[in-house]
Structure formats: structure tokens, C-alpha cells
Design goal:
seven-stranded antiparallel sheet, 314 residues, alpha+beta, Jelly Rolls, single chain, nine-stranded antiparallel sheet
């Protein structure tokens, strides 16, 4: 085989590998809100604020219900004070910004919504992944999710996950059984304390500080839907694929046919400045929201590099 033929075969093999790699990389970010420099600077209410350079899949502005104390700031990124650092994707993309608790209230009608550019149909088979950076070092509760509207009524459905406050009690549970824990919430905004109502949770007193929550929502048109969440603390390692998760931090099944048209965020508590929310991402793959490539992608990339090395030597 002459050098020219060998080079051609090497290039063809490398192209085939890259094509396979490309077919695996079908990632899609549906929603991203990093709060980077939102509001143009200075502490102010989140209410009425909108696009930043890193916003994806959102339109209009944030509308805050129940308080004017859900504050933004452009001098921090949520959870970056943790040491060692939280794993996963960075909280910002070249600019600072996050949401912090200035509410001074434990009211469970406190939440914010912002319209999605495209709705998400919970009546159609699909799998979604999400991640968010949270911090509950004081007596605060917070989280993110999807909602079918903005009204605090029994007609507005939602699904989400977050961190609980110091003496939280789950729906139907014993007193303080879900304090300082990551949790799952779903139902309607006007019942069971809305997103502060705890449906499933990890062991009480498991977290009192920074955390990365990564979740998977499996939507089915024929059987019950499923939500699974993993909480990662500072210095922890994210699995390369959800199939490698041997035990989720919390899981629950639910059944809704809502058409989600809003991103949902909640944050309250009596200790002003204690809670933080940042870096909300929703995608179609685990890698979308964690930044951790799938093992097959890594192997194919290495194989493609190897073909390139052989071709250069020849």
C-alpha cells in the first residue's frame, strides 16, 4: 500500500469516527438562565428583569409573586464561595450574577416565573435533564422547575426540585422530617404550599450550604411520569452518565399532562441574604446540564485523535 492510499484510508477512518461522534452529540439546551449581569448592575428586585447575553429559551421578563425581596446582584455567582468548588458547568459565562434572598419572609406564595419561548408538553414522551446551583446556609428554601402558568391557583401545575429550610416537614410526614434536605415538589401553585410542599426528599439535615442539583424528568404519555434528582456537594464528582447513578438522592412518580410555558423559581426565608439560586439549565442530555461528556463520546474522540496521529506519522 503506497503512502497516498494509506493517508486516504486514514482520513476516511477518522471521518467515520468523527461522524459517529457527531451523531452522539445531539445535545440541545432548551433553557438557560445564568443571570449574568442581569439588570445592568447593583442589587435590585428580580421583578421585571429580562434577557442577558447568556439567556436561552426564555422571553419577556421575570414576574415575582408575593414579594419584592427576591433580589439580584452582579457581584457574585451562586455557590462559588463553596470550598472546594461545586462540580459541573460554571455558574456564569464571563459575567457575574445570581439571585439572593432579600425576602425576610417564610410565605409559601413567594415565587417567580418567566415565559418559555417554546412550550414543553408533558403529554408527549420525552426525557429532560436540568441543573441548578443552590445555597441554603441559613434558614431558607429555594428551587427551580417548570409551570403551566403564573397564577397562584389550583389550575397552575408545576414540577421542580430544591433545598429545604431548617425545620421543613414533608407533605403527610412527621415534624421536621425534611429539614435541610434536597427535595422534589409538584402539584399546583395554589395547594399544599406550592413549590415549598415537599413530596420526596433525602435524609434530613443532609445539606446546609452550597449544592448542585442535577435532575432527570422522564415524561410518558402512557404511564406515570418520573423525576429523579442527584445532589452534588463541594468537591464531589458527577457520574459520566445517568446510567452510572446507583442511587438517586430522591425520586418520585407523578402524573400530569400540563403544557409548561414558564420557568419557575422560588426563594424565601427569614434570614435575609442566606439563600442563593444561580445557573439554571434544562437540556435533552445529561451532558447538556453537567458538562460531563458521555463515555462513548470520550472514547470516539480519543479514537479520532489516534487516527490523526497515525496519519501524521505516515
Amino acid at each position: 500500500m503506497d503512502l497516498k492510499t494509506s493517508r486516504s484510508l486514514g482520513m476516511a477512518a477518522a471521518s467515520a469516527v468523527m461522524l459517529a461522534l457527531s451523531s452522539q452529540s445531539h445535545a440541545t439546551i432548551i433553557v438557560q438562565e445564568l443571570f449574568d449581569n442581569i439588570g445592568g448592575g447593583g442589587d435590585k428586585s428580580l421583578n421585571g428583569l429580562g434577557d442577558t447575553a447568556t439567556t436561552v429559551g426564555l422571553t419577556g421578563t421575570w414576574q415575582v409573586n408575593g414579594t419584592n425581596g427576591m433580589m439580584i446582584a452582579t457581584n457574585f455567582n451562586g455557590g462559588t464561595s463553596a470550598s472546594p468548588a461545586l462540580p459541573g458547568l460554571p455558574p456564569g459565562d464571563g459575567a457575574l450574577g445570581g439571585v439572593w434572598n432579600g425576602t425576610g419572609s417564610y410565605n409559601t406564595n413567594i415565587y417567580a416565573t418567566r415565559p418559555l419561548t417554546s412550550t414543553i408538553d408533558f403529554g408527549a414522551d420525552q426525557v429532560l435533564y436540568f441543573s441548578v446551583r443552590l445555597d441554603n446556609p441559613l434558614d431558607t428554601a429555594m428551587g427551580i422547575g417548570l409551570a403551566s402558568g403564573t397564577s397562584a391557583s389550583g389550575s397552575t401545575s408545576f414540577i421542580g426540585a430544591g433545598l429545604s429550610w431548617n425545620n421543613a416537614t414533608s407533605i403527610g410526614g412527621s415534624a421536621n422530617d425534611a429539614s435541610n434536605a434536597s427535595y422534589i415538589s409538584y402539584g399546583t401553585l395554589g395547594a399544599d404550599n406550592g413549590p415549598y410542599g415537599i413530596r420526596a426528599h433525602e435524609a434530613k439535615d443532609s445539606v446546609n450550604g452550597a449544592a448542585l442539583i442535577v435532575g432527570r424528568i422522564t415524561i410518558s404519555s402512557t404511564v406515570a411520569d418520573q423525576i429523579d434528582i442527584m445532589r452534588y456537594g463541594p468537591g464531589s464528582t458527577i457520574q459520566a452518565d445517568p446510567s452510572l447513578v446507583t442511587a438517586w438522592t430522591a425520586s418520585d412518580s407523578f402524573d400530569t399532562s400540563m403544557v409548561a410555558d414558564n420557568l419557575l423559581l422560588w426563594l424565601n426565608g427569614g434570614s435575609s441574604g442566606g439563600g442563593q439560586v444561580d445557573a439554571i439549565r434544562i437540556g435533552t442530555t445529561w451532558a447538556d446540564v453537567t458538562g460531563v461528556p458521555e463515555p462513548g463520546s470520550v472514547a470516539l474522540a480519543a479514537l479520532a485523535a489516534g487516527f490523526g496521529f497515525v496519519r501524521r506519522r505516515r
